[in-house]
Amino acid sequence: MKRKYALLLALLALVTAFATGIVYVRMNTLDEQRILLDVTVDANYAFDLDTDAFHFGRVIPGGMMTRGFLINNTQDEAVLAELYISGDIARFITASETSVVVGAHEARTVDLTVSIPRNATFSTHTGELRVIFRRSP
Known about the structure:
The chain is flat, with a radius of gyration of 21 Å. It has one helix at 2-28; strands spanning 29-41, 54-59, 64-72, 79-87, 93-95, 99-102, 107-115, 123-135. The chain contains one helix and eight strands, in the order H-E-E-E-E-E-E-E-E. It is an alpha+beta fold. It has a single domain (31-135), classed as Sandwich (Immunoglobulin-like), CATH 2.60.40.
């Protein structure tokens, strides 16, 4: 009987800790932005400056391209911007920073660099950049 109560108490403690963690994360999350990413591996370089997504245009095998973007904080408090890259493009792309603290009414630039391996075949690679804004610790 004592063993059942101990197991029940341990399970209750685990559920409470998990729920507290979820509430903490949700309360500290201010906003989330999702931006589509793409790059085309091709025989020539080409730029794509459309604003509907974060296009890297065309990059040759063995080549690289870097594009920057501005994180502008209009809040009266510092924010933490966490960057997550997903999709097929993730294996080719790196961010200069993946966790950026931006002070109140300040701006920071983050660079994304696409590096295409020499043995890459011609094709288009897509993915998503997810930026989660949280209250700075």
